[in-house]
Amino acid sequence: MADPAQGSPGRARQTLCTFCGVVDQVTVTEDRKVRATGSLGVCVKGAHYFQKHLGAHPEKVARFTSPMLRSPYGWERVSWDYAIDMVADTILTDRQDFGRDALAFYGVGQMTMEALWVTKKFFQGHLGSNNICSNAEQCLANNAGGHELVFGNEGPFSCYDDYRSAEAIFFYGHNPAINHPTVFQRYVRRNRDAVKVVVDPRRTDTVTQLLADNPDNIHLPVRSGSDVLLNLMFARRLLDTGAWDRGYVERHVDQDSAASFLDLLRQGPFSVDEVVPRITPEGMDPAEMRARVERACDLWARRRVVSTSSVGINQTVGSAGVASILNLHLLTGAIGEPGRGHVRMAGQSNASSELALGFSGRLLPFRARVDNPEHRAVMADKWNLPPWRISPRPGLPVASFATSERLRTLFVFGTNPARNFPNLRRWREKMMDLCIVYADSYYNPEILEYADIILPCRTKHETSGIFLNGERRLQYMEPVEEPPFEAWGDVRIVCSVARRIADRLGDQQPPATDGEPSQEDIESWVADGNLDLSGPALDAAFRYPAGPDGEPSGEAIWQEIQQASRGFYNEFIDADGEPITQDRIRSGEGVQWQGERRYVPTPADGDGGAGGDGASGGDGSAHGDGSADGEVPLFSGVFRADRRRARFHLPAAERLVPFQERGRGFVLITGRGAMGTGNAVRRQNTAMFNSSTATGADDWPERNHVYVNPADAERVGLAPGAEAVLRNDLGEIICPVAISEDVPAGHVYLTFHPDRAGTHPNILTSSDNIDPHTWQPLLKDTRVDVLPVAPVAASIPAATARVER
Ligand SMILES: Nc1nc2c(c(=O)[nH]1)N[C@H]1C(S)=C(S)[C@@H](COP(=O)(O)OP(=O)(O)OC[C@H]3O[C@@H](n4cnc5c(=O)[nH]c(N)nc54)[C@H](O)[C@@H]3O)O[C@H]1N2
Ligand SMILES: Nc1nc2c(c(=O)[nH]1)N[C@H]1C(S)=C(S)[C@@H](COP(=O)(O)OP(=O)(O)OC[C@H]3O[C@@H](n4cnc5c(=O)[nH]c(N)nc54)[C@H](O)[C@@H]3O)O[C@H]1N2
Ligand code: SF4
Ligand SMILES: [Mo]
């Protein structure tokens, strides 16, 4: 039961900062000051949020204050009761008229685990629509994808502490100085002995700080899209110099995949001589790049190597890029011991929960597969549903929402689809045709153009729930304030809609059949009036004990999640195999599922690995491709008992081509933060988080600049402050130019954070270029022409008319 006292102001409360995936602990003191309580501290962005909302003089960030419906006369405020009626009716009508797949859900990775779970159970379990995904599909999905390709499951296997004991740390496509500062400052920079390597085309704040710490740290300013090639080059050199761990590969890696991988390395064009000229940007001396990559490669041969990758990989070479890093860990056996492994840095605070709960059109919770009948049956059983209720038809990739003929109603919880979707112009046209039900706390004028029903939800400091961070730590967010008006938590919204539908259905049960109904039977039941739905089942599934404020009990929901996870590889158990209770999550710094380190070889493996095999549970029920000598393989597939060896991933040829080799124009890198120095830049880099709705528009800069390398600026004819057009087949935008050596030639950089001028880089990003394994759009693989805006508009009147910002 929710404790009503939990949310009462006026006494010190411990809670979490739930912006980024580090999820730091903070205390809000009696006099509403914010202090770091966790071991990591709190970064300026987290502090800024709390200060803004809870500080001595809280600034008002505009909120949605009541449910609203679009009407012919404008926006109408309505009661919650009426809004829930409207949503329930919309679901039933669209479903009956257009089928189960007419509905879709798109959520944010800052929702609580409980909210993600009830949504998944409602949409996929009861309503039978697999169109349920989240912004992890723009963000972290490919980290999971890379892990699945290599290990068979998505979970990361190391923890932040591994940065402390590492001898070498590799960052691929990651700028933690800006984006994950607490971990960067406390773990990474404090390990002064480790040599750090940053693979990033830009000279970021991370690079500058690390080179200031120690000039022996290495920046590899490779061309965008080079990472898989670079890693194959590292692997080839490790092979050639004998600096790989043959024993580990023989014991723990599938031997066919090992043979193919070693063949590829020996026969492919992956020598340093062949690769360096392809990855070095113009203007940099290839000899200098060569010296740096050779030094970096030697670091992979050290014993304790930790790597991290982030959206600079996930949004370019995708899951193959992550897999190419994991290949190096397998090749060198750098897994399962302190200071050895890949550490996950999650973007959104609960992105890891979205991954674990399978927020993707092709997944069920715990990464079970929609297209696998056995998986559907297992999950239906856990949800107390007949097996036929989960549809075998995979849902849509997020990137295909815009072109779907099937879609009628889209639920958006958090996230700003009017800004952060690829191919934004086409997507906005589609949004005009869809019924959009939008739940968020903060007033967002952009969404008002597209939404039809607005549901005001509680903010992060008004709600409670569980968050799973990048290093698998489950922690509990406590409310520190009551909402100033009637805002509901997401869990209550979803459960209320489900139970309103149950009310409508009364005692209705699906028609009786001999054996399983066919998909055609089910479609015809749906069309005949949603006859497939069960009123009593819906009511029972979403009737949780509620607190005095009407919010359903998180404890009951967590128990359900924990029990449902049994038998899956990401079963929510601790290092000793004990179930993780809500009480334990709420105490101290939470609990790590499966302990700090997974894939710890037992001494019997001959690795001399420390500790027992806590990660695998050692239940002896091994099947799958066990080792010849009868050892239990280290890795699990979807189910814990489904033990297997890891596999080297062999990338497709298209992942080996740096983007500049594909033709003319510039590579457009969009990312977080402004570049350079000065107050405006600093302000942006400390205050802004993605769409920055939670901190309000007064932090936004007037206009975002596009950063261009000086040689390119001269070639194209751009002076600092000039206006440039960025253009490709999808559209064009205009922004002022900043000139910077920190962007390599052939590339330009523009943040995707909002500005007041309404610049929208996603007008230029493609929704067709998606990762084959996860469907994540490869947003940072974008080509544009960059041109000065003609001083006299007369030269291009038609184009100017089309310009959008
Ligand atoms: N301050 C702040 N912190 C945040 C956020 C925020 O908005 N502001 N957002 C949060 C979220 S949701 C996320 S996902 C994380 C993201 O954290 P990061 O992954 O660090 O975010 P980005 O700045 O988008 O991209 C990282 C880097 O990838 C580089 N890059 C681009 N193309 C390539 C390539 O082909 N190869 C390589 N190796 N690098 C490339 C870019 O130059 C950029 O420096 O941050 C989280 N933390
Ligand atoms: N061009 C380009 N596009 C990108 C990226 C890029 O690098 N380049 N990065 C991509 C990435 S990594 C990400 S993560 C996305 C981020 O973009 P979005 O998915 O749009 O996420 P945010 O901007 O973080 O929006 C968070 C919203 O969720 C709301 N919210 C927070 N908690 C809750 C909650 O518990 N319930 C509800 N209902 N709402 C809540 C907040 O109030 C806020 O309005 O953008 C993607 N788009
Ligand atoms: S690093 Fe992330 S979780 Fe920690 S205080 Fe900053 S934004 Fe919050
Ligand atoms: Mo993200």
From TrEMBL:
Record's compositionally biased regions (Gly residues): 606-623
Residues in Molybdopterin oxidoreductase domain copies: 63-499
PANTHER family (UniProt xref): RESPIRATORY NITRATE REDUCTASE (PTHR43105), RESPIRATORY NITRATE REDUCTASE 2 ALPHA CHAIN (PTHR43105:SF2)
UniProt KW keywords: Iron, Iron-sulfur, Metal-binding
CDD domains assigned: MopB_CT
Pfam families per UniProt: Molybdopterin, Molydop_binding
Domain Molybdopterin dinucleotide-binding: 677-782
Top-level taxonomic group: Bacteria
Stretch list, region Disordered: 595-631
Name under which the protein is recorded: Nitrate reductase
